[in-house]
Amino acid sequence: MTTLGAGDLHLTEELVDALNGFLVDRDDTALEVVLSRVPKPVRMATQQYLKEKCPPMPGAFTGFGPIDVVRPAVYFRDIDDELEEYLEGAYMIGLGIRMSNKQDSDGDVEWVVQLLSDEVSVPASAEPRTWELPVEAKLLQTWTSRQRTGHDGPVRGALNVAEEASAQGRWVRLHTLLHSDRDVDFEGNGTSEFVVDVFDAPIPLQRLEE
Fold first, then answer.
1. Burial zone of 192 (CB within 10 Å; 0-12 exposed, 13-18 middle, 19+ buried)
2. Cβ–Cβ under 8 Å, residues 87 and 162
3. Taking the mean position of all CA atoms in its chain, how far away is CA 43?
4. Residue in 130, 193, 191 with CA at minimum distance from that of residue 161
5. CA–CA separation, 206 and 210 (whole Å)
6. What's phi and psi for 157, nearest 5 deg?
């Protein structure tokens, strides 16, 4: 992968330990400290190797993640002014948003919202999606805030689509992302978008552990 010069051999054990720690828990805090002390070619070679061979563990995200959850799930009974204000506030300060509809044992529909530490970025040519599509449901429609018409802002436009689909008994998932204008690593030039995925599947039941 890379070679340390004679003057930096004392960092070998520390670098190996930090790499091993990163591979176990994907926490790069200790690794970044060590990489800040090694020569630039070693740092660049290490970072390139990790990018190609050790991509982020996707979890519920695609390979464009992951991003930390900063607020546990919050539940809303209706798409109303309270929910819109909640999403607007999160959107204004740059938090990522995920929302889906669920139904309880009585058949009542709730909206489950998670806030993320940031919006995940995707390259220009990528699908406008960072939430992995479920294998158990067929995608029926994808709407993005680039498609909105009229005077509705991105939050209200997304909520209108979500509410209409949910009223038809469809499973709906909404999330935000940053759509880059380039096909390289995101460098700050992009458009924040709301994405609404509608599935040809009934609204899923709320699990007790959620």
1. middle
2. no
3. 27
4. 193
5. 7
6. -60, -45
Q: CB–CB of 2/19 below 8 Å?
A: no
Give CA separation, 56 vs 35, 64, 168, 209, in Å: 18, 8, 36, 26
Residues sharing a CB contact under 8 Å with residue 63, sequence separation 6 or more, in sequence order = 55, 56
Tokens 């607007």, residue located: 88
Query: CB–CB of 176/130 below 8 Å?
Result: no
Which of 176, 133, 172, 139 lies closest to 154, judged by CA? Answer: 176
Q: Are β-strands 139-144 and 109-116 bridged in parallel, bridged antiparallel, or unpaired?
A: unpaired
Tokens of 58: 């996707």
Tokens representing 39 are 């020569």
Per residue in 146-185, is it b (16+ CB within 10 Å) or e — as a string?
eebeeeeebbbbbbbbbbebbeeebbbbbbbbbbbeeeee
pLDDT in tens, 87-133: 999 999 888 999 999 998 888 999 999 998 888 888 888 888 988 88
Model-wide pTM > 0.85: no
State how far Cα 14 lies from the chain centre. 32
Report how far residue 196's alpha carbon sits from residue 210's, in angstroms, rounded to the nearest whole number: 21
Whole-number Å distance between alpha carbons of 73 and 209: 11
What is the pLDDT, as a whole number, of residue 23?
64
